[in-house]
């Protein structure tokens, strides 16, 4: 196999990865707070398959990881008192994930357990300024202000229950995707309280996936993969013809 085939195959490998990522974006187009992803592809110089007559390095396609776009999605009004959305990029709700670790999410589709604990759709406990948020099921419907303070009415009096913990991540590249719409910090960087964040009660943040863009990407990826497959096939046929002609001369 010569250099052209190796370069084409390296690009086909990255195209397969792009196809998976684009399909995953489409699958999550209706997932609350989901952020679309894209593959980062670089050209990586490498030693050619044959040193002569090509003496310059061949440029192979290189998978440089997955980039994530954290631009804010559309705010959809639901009217549900426990549906919350964050107005502002780089801010997250703080929840307790699996094994008790602290993780972060933009998915504010919260609900209340039987004992009043506020949890995510996946059952992760929502954190407040003093620990887990616990509501009283016997009291009135919670009211949540823009700064995250939760109050419930009891005998005509509004009582403070707690404050939703909202943090800001300075560098989005410090976040690692965990699944279940949650992220964790992968470096020594610390999340800081987002005092300027605005919590919107009765709203949910939609995914920022553009379906038409992703469908276009799927078409582009499939066409590119087919073109490269044809190049590999044509190159193989040329090599086969060259060997056959050399054989006849000999």
From TrEMBL:
GO terms for cellular component: bacterial-type flagellum basal body, rod. Residues 6-35 form the Flagellar basal body rod protein N-terminal domain. It is found in: Bacterial flagellum basal body. GO terms for biological process: bacterial-type flagellum-dependent swarming motility. It comes from the Bacteria. Residues 200-242 form the Flagellar basal-body/hook protein C-terminal domain. Transmembrane segments: none annotated. InterPro entries: Flag_bb_rod_N (IPR001444), Flagellar_basal_body_rod_CS (IPR019776), Flagellar_FlgE/F/G (IPR020013), Flg_bb/hook_C_dom (IPR010930), FlgE/F/G-like (IPR037925), FlgF (IPR012836), LlgE_F_G-like_D1 (IPR053967). Keywords: Bacterial flagellum, Cell projection, Cilium, Flagellum. The keyword Repeat does not apply. Pfam families: Flg_bb_rod, Flg_bbr_C, LlgE_F_G_D1. Residues 85-151 form the Flagellar hook protein FlgE/F/G-like D1 domain. Belongs to the flagella basal body rod proteins family. The basal body constitutes a major portion of the flagellar organelle and consists of five rings (E,L,P,S, and M) mounted on a central rod. The rod consists of about 26 subunits of FlgG in the distal portion, and FlgB, FlgC and FlgF are thought to build up the proximal portion of the rod with about 6 subunits each. This is Flagellar basal-body rod protein FlgF.
